[in-house]
Amino acid sequence: MDSITYAPATGALSSMWLLVAIPALSATVLLLLGRRADKWGHWLGVASVLASFVLGVTYFLQLRGIDGTGNKSLSVDLFEFIHIGDLNVSVGLLFDPLTAVFVLLITGVGFLIHLYAVGYMSHDPGRRRFFAYFNLFVAAMLLLVLGDNYVMLYAGWEGVGLASYLLISFWSDRPAAATAGKKAFLINRVGDVGFALAIFLMFATFGTTNYADVFNGVLASEAGQTVSAGVLLAMGLLLLLGACGKSGQFPLQTWLPDAMEGPTPVSALIHAATMVTAGVYMIARSQVIFNANETAQTVVVSIGALTLLIGCVIGCAKDGIKRVLAYSTVSQIGYMFLAVGLGGGAYALGIIHLLAHGFFKAGLFLGAGSVMHGMKDQEDIRRFGGLWKYMRITWATFGLGYLAIIGIPPLSGFFTKDPIILAAFNREGWTGWLFGSAALLGAGLTAFYMTRLFVLTFHGRPRWQKEGEGGAHAASATDAHGAHADAHGAAIARTEDGRDIQHPHESPWIMTVPLMLLAVGSVAAGWLMSTSVVDWLTPVFGEHEEGHAHLTHTQVTIATVAVTVLGVALGYLLFRGGTSLVEQPARTHLVRAARNNLYADRFNELVFELPGRLLTRALVWVDNRGVDGIVNGLAAAFGGGSGRLRRLQTGYVRTYALSILSGAFLIVAALLAVRLG
Amino acid sequence: MNDIQLPAIDYAALLPMLIVFGAACVGILVEAFAPRGWRFVIQVSLTIGGLVAGLVAIIVNRDLEITTIGGAVTVDGPGLFLQGAIIILGIVSLGLIAERRLERGGPFVAEAAHAANSDGDKRQEREPGATEVFPLTLFAIAGMMLFCVSGDLLTMFVALEVFSLPLYLLCGLARRRRLISQEAALKYFLLGAFASAFFLYGVALLYGYAGTVSLTGIREGVLQSEQSGILLAAGLALLAIGLLFKAAAVPFHVWTPDVYQGAPTPVTALMAACTKAAAFGGLLRVFNVAFETTAWDWQPVLATVAILTMVVGSILAVAQTDIKRLLAYSSVANAGYLLVGVVSLNGAVGSSLFYLIAYGFSVLGAFAMVTLVRDSEGEATHLSRWAGLGKGSPLFSALFTFLMLGFAGIPLTSGFTSKFALFSSAWDSDQSVLVIVGVLSSVVLAFPYLKVVVLLWLNPPGEETPTVSVPSMLTRAVIFAGVAVTFVLGVAPSFLLDIVADAGPFLAK
Amino acid sequence: MDGYLGSYATLGVLLVVAGAFFVVAYTANRVLRTNAPSAAKSTSYECGLDPAEGSDWAQAQIRYYVYAFLYALFAVESVFLFPWAVVFDGLGMVSVAEMGVFVAVLALGLLYAWRKGVLTWT
Q1: Domain NADH:quinone oxidoreductase/Mrp antiporter transmembrane: where (chain A) (predicted)?
Q2: Helix segments in A39-149, DSSP class H
Q3: How confident is the model at residue B114 (pLDDT cuts 50, 70, 90)?
């Protein structure tokens, strides 16, 4: 690849900082005005994201207007943060085709979800605060994709982490939400440490973190071997650790399902469509570093393949509608990692899958939110069933999202997942067969658990009692079966045989309109994007020729569709009759393991927490005996010295004058000694 | 007898100082003739107007580089920057001086000379304060401005006295705790006079050596003079002592804690921000212009003073129990950091100027916040009284915590960027030992700051926790300016770093 | 008697002579006088007033200070006025104006003192 240059932005694009500034300003206003903005604050939040979206479209059109040979990577230098000696950190923005699609995704889908949240949060007293955090998230996410150096990427990275933490634990009076927020925060720290170390390594190696300079440095080193392969590998792996933390990849995936404790729009925007894909963005952006080191790429592919299977297997065993979707997110991001790890032409495939996933997964989450909205915030799919009659729009849009995610042609998942499976098969050597099979197996499992989810929720006999039918027993039954607390603290009444008493209804238009728009996206996006976006991204990822092939496109397509249909059929046959309200005893180890999230929490406990705890214990010991001794000794020494010196400060002018005089004597003597000596 | 020529005077170059001096003189007339009820308003607007006009004149002059009135005044880039810095910091500290809501009649009394606790003194504690503080402040600021652009040592001495005398008086005017205020004024005066004598004696010896008192003349004299080097060395030493006294370097710092504690807090703020800027402006000019060529002789000695100042200042800050004394010792330690800049000569002039601005705003903000914590006796400055303030006054405590973290040099504050700039340019000037001592001492110095933070947030409130008073817009503006500049210079210091880089070296022709 | 301090030789001789004179005079006095001490003779002399009783940390009237200060002000003024008076003839109106400004600034202080009533002795 030739060296990388960014052209200075002109025209409208020179004001691209507005993209970040508008939502940030809105968040500030909402937080500062406090209750005064309660009445109209949510509309300000929606308007600011809409404004960013309109700007994003404008910039996108301008970028598209640049003809084929022109440099499509435009940058703006805002100001120098610090420039002292060799250290130079500047704040600059970069708008290139990769950034452009992310900006459109974040602001476009973000706008729809904001709109949806107006309805979803309408009864929540903290709605203004919610929108402030939501705007903060959008601003940070845009900063993340717009920065032209790794320090700004890191700043956005931490910003979205903060917003995510605030929003997961938004209902902080619920212990589960508070714990989930903390868990997300802590696990992300593990990844962030890796990312920060990678940035330090860049500083040390290249003296800068600007994308262009770092990438050119890597390219130059490939030619001249100036930077050792070990350094590049370390850089790649550290970046990957950061990406795994943010994107919920093995072994740091456990926080993501717990993050569903946040309000559903948060799950849709942050934990499905945008933030969790930041890791994919980071790897795609750092493609030069990963391309330069095959080992790092292999690690990325392996993690992607492993995670996509983990996500599928656990997804089969979960009963919460949002939990299943969360594990499917984990699994789908696994596909994206797989794609960007394959390198070459697969980068663009990973990105288009990311975009398509942004649409259908946001739609699925919002649909799930709509279901919960109509079902008194119940989220256990065993307690649904037959809902299609009561919420037809939700059913239809959710169904389209479902068909899209399992990859039924011609919906978007087909156009984006299929090429990834093909690319995996066509990786050189035996690993191609391995990763390809994993991806194919994942497609079948996805079809199975998504069918289970869809059928249990919308079809079959209702496993709940309609309000007013047999309600005579309801009041007394509530206590007998234990009150079930919903999101807002109210209890759902139960019948004698343990069924919820429900009054299902369709959500208001402000929630269904985004659903419909996202469904349109789920249907159309894949076909629209499968070629155009690949071409669009060519300036970023370069041209790639088809490598050698284990299998042809047709073979893979047939195989994929076959396993998908198999998964759907299996799912439908098993679950069309509904399911028991209580958990079935786990008969196999796999089921038990899957219900326990494949022991990932225990794994993390062993790998991260236990050593951490042992280390802490050891450190506490060392700290108490050694460091505290030294520190306390030092403090005592300073304190004592301080106290002793203090005695010189008698308060008498004569003592002070004497001090000055003796100082003067010493200085004169010293200077004379220097002069004469 | 007619061979005496009047020196040419470039009035444009002198205009900023003439404006401020003129405003001060008008202020005296106002005191003499304006009706009592009107004086406060007239004085405040006159003072602010004069300072702003002076600032405008400085900005107009920004590219000027000239020596005028027969070499008495040298207007150059760093000089103008320092003048501007002093005026801006002066305007900000004026917000504290003019504050009248916290204390009925303002923080000052009318007459310093009433014996403490005498009947007359008790009576004036209840009366509205005199407005003479405004012309006095203007004279002090004008003197500081002249001090920074003095082209010869005699002008420098006159300027030194012009800014010192009003400060001595202002120190004695505190409304509350009159006795330690008067004690502070007297101590400052006596020791200041003592130091002035050293300064003057140094000037005499240098005149004997070089045959001139002009800074550039001394610079040339070093190369040509046939006089004994003893005169140069002793003169340099004595001159330096006079300057180091004002800068509060160890062992000439002894007055600092007593005076900072006793003086009315607005005056303490003025001294910590403006006097520090003026004193280091003078030090930088003298050592960069007059003694640059003899650097090998004095650098080791001044480096030793710098090390002593950093170490003693930060260690003594650890044991302080009074917030004003703590800030006083931190000001001593900061003088040590700035001395590192002086020792590094031309390489660190820019970063020293940056440091002065950054430190000045932070310290103004901190002292402004000190004025708010009050009980029936006035300001409650003992640290034990500050325990648990975070519970009742979270905003106050958060802002104060931010300033403390700024002093401690945490990134994203000006404390970090300014120390970083200063130490890295000193490192480039091969002052590695000083930089290492500086970094270590700032670690020690972080301890007392963090102690205050812990005290604010984690300690349980005492039985009589003082209240945080609600000030008028003036003090709020000062706090806002202090916090905002501390933050902005921590996040985006480049524009100011560019300005100080453009200011260039001192004019040594 | 060469070198830097050479020109100060005369001054040195003068100092030695002065010191000798002082020592000789006092020694002669001591040898020649009669000696009759009394309590009254060893009290401090205060310009004809009775010596102050008790602690010597008594407070002085501020008026003394003000007058001393005003005196110093005009003493300094005259230090500048005399040399100026010798040469202003050749320097023209500019120097007259400048000295006018100087005197005016000093007069400002006097004006202030007068308005504040410190010039009346009550």
Answers
A1: 149-438
A2: 41-65, 97-120, 127-146
A3: confident
d(CA A644, CA B434): 25
For residue A83, which phi and psi values (nearest 5 degrees)? -145, 95
Q: From chain B, pick out residues whose CB is under 8 angstroms from the CB of C114.
A: 32
Do residues C29 and C62 both lie within one domain?
Answer: no
- Residue of A515, A600, A665, A490 lying closest to A256 (CA atoms): A600
CB-facing half-sphere around the CA of A331: CA atoms within 13 A = 31
Query: Which residues of chain A are under the pLDDT cut of 50?
Result: 471-490
SS3 at position A426: coil
Q: How far apart are the first and last CA of chain B?
A: 30
**Tokens coding A34:** 């406090």
Determine the pLDDT at residue A485: 40
Residue A237 CA to its chain's centroid (Å): 19
The angle, 0 to 180 degrees and rounded to 10, between the axes of the packed helices B229-247 and B178-210 is: 160
pLDDT band at residue C57 using 50, 70 and 90 as cut-offs: low
What is the spatial distance between Cα B351 and Cα B312, in angstroms, rounded to a whole number? 23
Q: Do A668 and B255 touch (CB under 8 A)?
A: no
Q: Which residue has the tokens 């905002």?
A: B484
A668 touches chain B (CB under 8 A): yes
Answer yes or no: do C75 and C25 share one domain.
no
Out of C108, C114, C116, the one facing B25 most closely (by C-beta) is C108
Lowest mean pLDDT among A282-296, A583-597, B209-223, B400-414: A583-597
- Which domain does C88 fall in, by range? 58-122
Give the pLDDT score at B198.
Answer: 95
Nearest CA to A579 out of A458, A457, A456 is that of A456
Would an 8 Å CB–CB cutoff place B301 in contact with chain A?
yes
Check CB contact of B8 with chain C, cutoff 8 Å. no
Tell me how far CA of residue B68 lies from CA of A356, B506, C95, in angstroms: 74, 15, 17
Provide the number of structural domains found in chain C.
2
Answer yes or no: do C64 and C112 share one domain. Answer: yes
The rounded distance, in Å, linking the Cα atoms of A315 and A313 is: 5
Q: At C12, which helix (H) or strand (E)? A: helix C9-32
Tokens of A462: 């209702």
Domain residue limits, chain B: 11-503
pLDDT above 90 for B273: yes
Cα gap B164→B450, rounded to integer Å: 33
CA–CA min distance B111, chain C (Å): 11
Alpha carbons within 13 A on the beta-carbon side of A666: 15
- Both tokens assigned to B201: 């004696």
Burial of residue A488 (number of CB atoms within 10 Å: 0-12, 13-18, 19+): exposed
Distance CA A243, CA B67 (A): 61
Domain ranges within chain A, ordered by starting residue = 297-482+493-595, 596-646, 650-677
What CATH number is given to the structural domain containing C106? Answer: 1.20.58.1610
Mutate to test the interface with B, among A78, A82, A89, A648 (most CBs of B within 10 A): A82
B26 with C113: CB under 8 angstroms? no
Reported ipTM exceeds the 0.90 cut: no
In the predicted model, what is the mean pLDDT of residues B146-168? 95
Tokens representing B358 are 């950054």
pLDDT in tens, B346-380: 888 999 999 999 999 999 999 999 999 988 888 88
Q: What pLDDT, on a 0 to 100 scale, did the predictor assign at position B86?
A: 96
With b for 16 or more beta-carbon neighbours within 10 A and e for fewer, the A601-625 pattern comes to eeebeeeeeeeeeeeeeeeeeeeee
Nearest CA in chain C to B113: C62
Q: Identify whether C8 is part of a domain.
A: yes
